Amino acid sequence: MMETSLASTSYQQSRTKLETYFDKTARKAWEDLTSDVPVSGIRATVRKGRDEMRNLLLSTLPTDMHGMRLLDAGCGTGALAMIAAQRGAHVVAIDVSQGLIDIAQKRTPSHLSIDWRVGDMRSHNLGIFDHVIAMDSLIHYDENDIIGVLKAWSQRANQIAFTFAPGTAMLRTMHFVGKAFPRGDRSPAILPVSEARLSQDIGVALPAWSIDFTQRVSSGFYKSQAMGMSRR
Ligand SMILES: C[S@@+](CC[C@H](N)C(=O)[O-])C[C@H]1O[C@@H](n2cnc3c(N)ncnc32)[C@H](O)[C@@H]1O
User: Fold this and answer.
1) H or E element, residue 213
2) Is residue 142 part of a domain?
3) Is residue 79 one of the residues assigned to a domain?
């Protein structure tokens, strides 16, 4: 059963919609997007942007991660988790979609050992971590819920890197996933967030943490912004 304690109703509703979307509606589209199969124009720009974002997030992690624990929160088909495990990290990779975890498990090289889980990424039962990484798994949640998740992670991690949909007027009209998939595959809305307000709210909610970097990746219809924070 999903852990529901302390999570807001809006968080739980978004999570339920996302589970249906990623597990059923768009599972095949995500399987293709996250593989090497050829994809058409718009999706190719999204794939390129996502590759760039993954590399950016990975560049903030040590190259040798032996002895470290990493949570890949909302891991999807698991590309980032596999690279972190390749670097020696003990990786817990969780996603609300059983279907995407099945794909991730099938793709995992036999020499890697990853603790794949199906469930809620803000669950208290996942252990403590040196690093939490959440690539594009918070972009469908409103800002209050993003802060709630960051607070939950801050109690069991030393560093957190996540992405959000940058909230400029132009970008509000360019929701990359919505445009990248056919109408029937459209995702739940991506909720743009103002970087200034998010930074301010993190300062209030998590006074013991500092924001270390923020960097945008922009490739065709893919627009996403990374933010890294650590305990002072
Ligand atoms: C845009 S995809 C990104 C997947 C992966 N991080 C990547 O970059 O390839 C967002 C993922 O977050 C997952 N997700 C969203 N909310 C979640 C939650 N509350 N708990 C666990 N997974 C969640 C979705 O199922 C989906 O696989």
Assistant:
1) strand 209-219
2) yes
3) yes
How many folded domains does the chain comprise?
1
Distance 51 CA to ligand 1 centre (A): 16
Q: What CATH number is associated with residue 82?
A: 3.40.50.150
Rounded CA separation 91/104 (Å): 13
Residue pLDDT, tens place only, 213-222: 999 999 998 9
- Residue 178 domain flag: yes
The secondary structure of residue 61, as a DSSP letter, is S
Residue located nearest, by CA, to atom 15 of ligand 1: 137
Q: Is 188 in the pocket of ligand 1 (CB under 6 A)?
A: no
The type of residue at 185 is D
Atom of ligand 1 nearest to the CA of 97: 25
State pLDDT tens for residues 106-143: 999 999 999 999 999 999 999 999 999 999 999 999 99
Identify the residue whose C-alpha is closest to ligand 1 atom 24: 74
Structure token pair of residue 105: 């498990």
Q: Which amino acid is at 123?
A: S
- pTM score, two decimals? 0.93
Q: Do strands 209-219 and 222-231 pair parallel, antiparallel, or not at all (unpaired)?
A: antiparallel
User: Is the residue at 2 inside a domain?
Assistant: no
CB 100 within 8 A of CB 76: yes
Domain that holds residue 106: 9-231
Segment (H or E) for 216: strand 209-219
Copy the structure tokens of residue 197: 């307000």
Whose C-alpha lies nearest to ligand 1, atom 4? 76
